[in-house]
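sanity check this record:

:::
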Amino acid sequence: MQLYGANRRAHRRISAVVQGDIRIFEEQRRPFSTLDISETSLRVNVNTEVAVNSLLEFTLDLPEHGQKVTAHGRVIRADPSEGGMFELAISIVDIDSREHLALKRYLRSLDPGSPGVFESK
């Protein structure tokens, strides 16, 4: 039994000419250090200028947890800072639920009394 017939497509392709554009994310990664962080945003120092509203992927290496968390964010503020660095405020727009839970657990370990952090059992 074949699920979608001989061409194995869920939807039929229609011949059409439509103009558009694509954005290719830069492959080069830049190191950063967080200034502060929450479940939904972070503020970082980075050595390159990034435009407000830029979408980016970032990875956090959670100390003492042996885990890296990868997420996507939108730059909501970008200001020059000391030593040629740039301070970015980033809103997290997409994160895997397991990695979000790891981030929340890490934040809870830093601030055990925080009422806004969910702890799953």
Q: What stands out?
A: Residues 117-121 have pLDDT under 50 and may be disordered.
